[in-house]
Each structure stands twice: as C-alpha cells, then as structure tokens.
C-alpha cells in the first residue's frame, strides 16, 4: 500500500487508501451490479515476450523493493521483466490501454476494479492462483466483480487510533484511559485539547470518518451490494457524533489546523490523536523521528468494533501476450516470504494469512492494524462509486455546519442511481 495513498482514498492507486462489504469473517466488500463484459477467463496466453510491470510507488523504498523482487524472479524464471514507477498511475494506465499496449501487470485499486473488468480490459485470473486460499476473504471480496475473483490482493492497510504519548502523559492520562467507547474518546479528546493542540485530528473524508459509520453499524451499501443504505439511522448517528465534537473543538479536520494529513498533525503536535493506517510509520520515521506514538484499536461504537481497509491488487491485462509468466510472477510477489520482505521495506501488511504470525512478531507495536482485518469494511467497488465518494467527501468538508441527514440523503440518491 502506498503511504500517500491511504492519506486520501480516491484519485490514487489504493486503497486505501485505500480505501469493500459482505461481512466475511475478515471484513467486507462491495461488488457486482451493472452490465459487464464476460470475464476474460480461459487459457492463459504464453510467449517469449518480456513483462512490463507498472506500479504507483510511495517512494524510493517501494520502487527499489519491487524492482529487486521482480529482478530476482526474472533471474529464477528466465523471463525478462521491467518495472515502471508511474508518475500518474491512472493516467498512464488509461493511455496504455487506449494505445493497445498496456502493461502486463499493474497496481489496481479496488475502487477501479469495476471499470476495468466491465470493459473487458482485465484478465480474471484469481481462481487460477495456487495461493488463492491464503488471501484474507475480505480482500478476495474486494476484488470480486459479478461473482468472479479477478486479481490477487498485493497487500492491505486498516485504520486505527494513533496517540502522541508525550501529549497523552502531559494531559495526565495513562494507559487505563485508552478509549474503548465513543464517550471515552470524546472525554479523552477534551482533556487533550489545549492551545493549538486539538484532541483528535483527521482528514475530513469518508476514508476516515467512515470508521464511525462502521462502528455505528452503518454501511454505504447492503451486504449484497444491491441496495443503497447511506442515509441509514446508523450513519446519521455517526455523522452527528463527529459533528458534535467538531463544534465543541475537541475534534478537528487536518486542514483546519494547518496540516495536510493526520500524521503531520500528530508530528507537529497540532493533534494529540489521529485516525490513520499503518503507512503512518513511514511518514513519522521520515518526517518526525523524535515523536513517540502508540497505536491502539479504534474505540467501539454503538454497534461494536469498526474500521476501514484499503487494498490494491496485481491487475493483469487481457491483452498481455504472456499471462502465464505474469501469473507465475504474481504468485511469487504474493508469497508470504516476499510480502514480509515488502513489509520490512516500505510498510504494507501482507494480504496472505500465512504471514500473519511472523508479521505480528516483527511488528508488535502495529498489531492492532492487522487485528482490524477481522472486522474491517472496504470501499464500494460498484462502477461509478468512486465519483459518488468524491462528492461525499466534498460534502463532509462542511459537516460542521451541515445537517448530517441532508448530506447522507444526497449520497443515498447518488448510490441508488448506481444500483438500479
């Protein structure tokens, strides 16, 4: 997962970001709906052509790690392969497909799946994966469209609560005060608010505020993805809770305190707590190495635990002349060993369950992020849903002064247009 991807759910290659929804033990995912081309199943193409892999990289560490892994596979397999770190992944992918020369493999966010699958651009190879059964079920759901598993999840991230421990102690709080409910979160945020420091700071977007919706028992779509549920009582309750504490000054949006994202607010002591994903480790170590922080599970809401997850898959082009080699490379890149190596290099969590034990052992301070996979929701994957969430984000920017029901009724109307 790209570090900057999770900071803003849409318009990136994530995600989340970013940044899902049938509850399947490990989380949830939206899919299906709408007309689509037949899945590009069947025999894999095979040739002596070299492979091109296009990624949307978070920085040098990720680019180097992927290039090294592909080079190792290439040496082992005898198949030439090159990695392209895109400057604008979606634009360059679109140009490649339009020109009839797309990369063989590429990063593909769950919010982009429906568009590529429905027009026949994407090879449906998920059921051919030798390690298919090792992926978290929620991630498989994220990349299932019209009941077809298209592509291998390459990694994922969840959101949890991150605390600036020095500010926490300064406010007279201890570990016994870690919030486990909405009421406790609000009380802690009030105690932590002082001067230019707000108690809880996060980006004013669905990719953060959505955790409260999940904790209240709300979704944007029904479990089967066929019914819009944006304006449910649960979602109204969630936005009303956030609105209340934005107005009492204990919660704040990052931009309103002069920060670009929650990690910056935490690092500059503009926020004592934030809601972010495991990509925050890279940002903090690079920009704020002296700031001490603690990751804990987000508090439970009226309906229990809830968070969001963000993921990418390894998309495979239908027009790739060497899909057989591409599949072999994907299996190599998504092996437990290689994903653990990626985690050490640039921070994502492995998408395969067999890596969980070792990952937790090596990342003891980050375990709440992986534990979140048990109850995480993903973002909708219906064609057109990305635009709906972009509009939702614009409305959330005015949540402090806008009726939550009015905002959610608008989202409901937009989603209903997609599921009809």
Descriptive account of the structure:
The chain is an alpha/beta fold. Helix content is 38%, strand content 15%. Strands 1, 2, 3, 4, 7, 8, 9, 10, 11, 12 and 13 form an eleven-stranded mixed β-sheet that branches. The longest helix is centred in the first third of the chain and has 18 residues, at 60-77. It is globular and about 65 Å long.
Query: What does the main sheet amount to?
Result: 11 strands, mixed
Task: Please give the CATH architecture of the largest domain.
Answer: 3-Layer(aba) Sandwich
Which descriptor suits the 3D outline? globular
Q: What percentage of amino acids are in beta strands?
A: 15-25%
Order of helices and strands: EEHEHEHHEEEHHEHHEHEHEEHHHHEHH
How many angstroms does the end-to-end distance come to?
32 Å
Report the average pLDDT across residues. Answer: 90
**Structural class determined from secondary elements:** alpha/beta
Identify the CATH homologous superfamily of the largest domain: Periplasmic binding protein-like II
What is the CATH level 1 assignment of the largest domain? Answer: Alpha Beta
CATH topology of the largest domain: D-Maltodextrin-Binding Protein, domain 2
Tell me the helix content: 25-40%
Number of helices: 16
């Amino acid at each position: 997962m790209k570090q900057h991807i999770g900071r803003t759910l849409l318009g990136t290659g994530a995600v989340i970001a970013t940044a899902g929804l049938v509850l399947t033990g490990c989380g949830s995912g939206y899919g299906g709906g709408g007309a689509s081309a037949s899945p590009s199943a069947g025999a894999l193409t095979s040739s002596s052509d070299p492979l091109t892999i296009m990624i949307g990289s978070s920085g040098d560490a990720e680019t180097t790690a992927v290039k090294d892994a592909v080079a190792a596979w290439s040496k082992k397999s005898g198949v030439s392969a090159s990695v392209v770190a895109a400057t604008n992944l979606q634009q360059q992918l679109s140009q490649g497909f339009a020109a009839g020369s797309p990369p063989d493999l590429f990063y593909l966010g769950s919010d982009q799946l429906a568009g590529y699958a429905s027009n026949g651009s994407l090879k449906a190879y998920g059921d051919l994966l030798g390690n298919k059964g090792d992926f978290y079920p929620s991630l498989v759901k994220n990349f299932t469209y019209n009941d077809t598993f298209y592509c291998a999840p390459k990694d994922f991230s969840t959101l949890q609560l991150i605390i600036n421990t020095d500010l926490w102690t300064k406010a007279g709080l201890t570990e016994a005060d870690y919030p486990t409910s909405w009421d406790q979160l609000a009380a802690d945020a009030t105690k932590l608010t002082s001067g230019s420091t707000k108690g809880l700071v996060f980006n004013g977007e669905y990719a953060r505020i959505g955790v409260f919706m999940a904790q209240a028992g709300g979704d944007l779509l029904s479990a089967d993805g066929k019914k819009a549920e944006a304006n449910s009582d649960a979602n109204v309750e969630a936005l009303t809770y956030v609105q209340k504490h934005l107005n009492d000054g204990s919660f704040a949006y990052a931009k309103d305190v002069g920060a670009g994202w929650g990690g910056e607010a935490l690092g500059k002591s503009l926020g004592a707590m934030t809601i972010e994903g495991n990509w925050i480790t890279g940002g903090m170590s690079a920009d704020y190495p002296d700031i001490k922080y603690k990751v804990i599970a987000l508090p439970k809401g009226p309906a229990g635990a809830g968070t969001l997850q963000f993921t990418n898959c390894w998309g495979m082009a239908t027009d790739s002349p060497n899909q057989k080699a591409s599949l072999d490379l994907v299996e190599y890149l998504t092996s437990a060993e290689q994903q653990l190596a990626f985690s050490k290099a640039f921070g994502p969590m492995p998408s395969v369950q067999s890596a969980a034990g070792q990952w937790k052992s090596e990342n003891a301070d980050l375990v709440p992020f992986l534990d979140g996979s048990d109850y995480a929701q993903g973002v909708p994957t219906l064609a057109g849903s990305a635009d709906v969430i972009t509009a939702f984000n614009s409305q959330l920017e005015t949540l402090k002064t806008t009726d939550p029901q009015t905002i959610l009724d608008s989202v409901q109307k937009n989603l209903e247009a997609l599921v009809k």
